[in-house]
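Internal tracking record. Fields below are filled automatically when a chain is submitted to the structure queue. Please do not edit lines marked as system-generated. If the sequence contains nonstandard residues, flag them in the REMARKS field before resubmitting.
Queue: standard
Priority: normal
Entity type: single polypeptide chain
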Amino acid sequence: MAVIISLRARLVLMVASLAAGACVFAEAQHGLRASVSAERVSRNLVAGQLRAELAALLGHGTSHERLARFEDAMRAMFSALPKNEDGGIDQGTARFALHRFFLSQHGWRIKGLDAAGERWDESSSTVMLKSKMPSLILELVEERLGGKHISLPELAVLAATVEDLVHSDSMELLQLAFDVHDLPVDGRLSAMQAKLAIKTYMMFFVSPEVLQANSSRSVREYLGIMPRAYPSWNDLLVWADDVRETLQYQDSALHSPFASGKEDFRDFDSMARWVEQIGAEFGRFQDLECRSMKASLLDLEGEGRADGRVQLSKFYGSHGSGGAGFFQESPDYLRDLGALDETDPKRPAVIVPNYVLSQPNCLATSGFFSVCCIDECGALMTSLERSIGQPVASPQHIAGLVSELPSDTIAASRNLSAALRRRLDEIAHVHGGQVPLHGRMFQQWMHHAFPNECPYPHASSQLSAPLGVADWTAKWNQSKSALATKGEMQEIVRLAGAAGENSSRYDLDGWAVPWTAEEELVSSLVLDKLGASKLGEERRWGRVVSMAALVASVALAVSGHFGALRTVLRAAVGGSSCEAQLPSWCGHAGAGKAHFV
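SYSTEM-GENERATED OUTPUT FOLLOWS
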């Protein structure tokens, strides 16, 4: 498989340069990719999808099993999240959990869940656009539960609803592919038509820049340049066929061997099922290229450097010596992405995990979500959360677990450096002897413990929401370029040579690693209550109230009256004082910051 470096930036540039003047453009008028004037969300539509998932939670069958799978996948993380007295998490914590879950599982970066540039528990959008749809979903859940708390089953409902919306996005893309070639949606396609439809869908999926092509001819011209614009294009098509064959195999295992023929995916409904599966698995396919990119970056420094950084002069590589390298983001753009370490101004360095997870390396960007590299740190955190099962832990407990925790580039059974142990003690000292797992300082510690996998968490005050190449350039009104010129890269290489290699890397056994004491917690719950365990009657009572709230939400969906919620809750608690039994949301009015990037 070919290695794609700066995936999104390179694909955009190649498509633009190779197809310049070749096609006629027209504004797209479909679904999530419509113009801003048509992008306003139908609250009733989203509420309907949410109600369907809530109903499935109380029912049985395939939907119920699907929600159970979500619960199992998020159980370890949920067990360690800060909770209120009834064992529920607040809206901001739910936002954090969903963001991490989708980025770790599928590489999906959902707009409206990513907290870059704002607190986890705030939504700055006053107009409900589709890019903020997850925030709307959270607000709907808050309404349904009376603004109280979210338990694991409700979090699974949220995840399923977001996944439904992503799948709806795939259906709209497939519809576009059918429409542009005037293919019938209610009939059977020929083998050639089906192949054209899936190729068009895949091109729209990885390169939304071509969505405005308004004729079959222009789309075919774009398809002709895709192998040059996206060197893994043929591999991608082979992989898509593998996904189809896997579905066919699964179907054959479910059906009688005497049944007639297997599904050949040559009609809209069966192809819709195919592209849904492509969307669910694409992040793992792309992650192969992300791992290759990461390996290429680490190879630039070799084994002598182990701090997750590559000197900027080496990052530009063959550009500086007159060759044709791949990495070419400008220092200004890298800085805004949070991927440039300028602690040593004479020897700036690229932070490898921050760069790999950055916006230029995301593909399949729509108005609702992007498919980016899988966040490897999420799996490491899940392992710790499963072992700890609480929002906080002692430095000794964490150090013991991390020393036995392997990553892609670090072997298990290692001795943590004295510096790492002291930094862990320092975090505990700030928080009364315990280390909060979901705060900026611990994520900073995880970055130094796993420098090639965990990104460096910049403080919210230092980093705005990341932008793609085109949007970033437009933000600066063309006065700055997201890509460095060959002359600029050669000058950086020259200055690095003059500065020499001394102090170009951090001493991981000392105190020289970048470190700031600014803390930002996901939740502002009181720290001395974070590790408290609710047992016995109180925990059972919390489950009763949670289920009562869910029953009320379904009743509310049918009746449309908020009184249903109050009625059911009163019945559950045996009086009118039920509202006093449920804790208020946490994190909305508390002092201090409540998120990290």
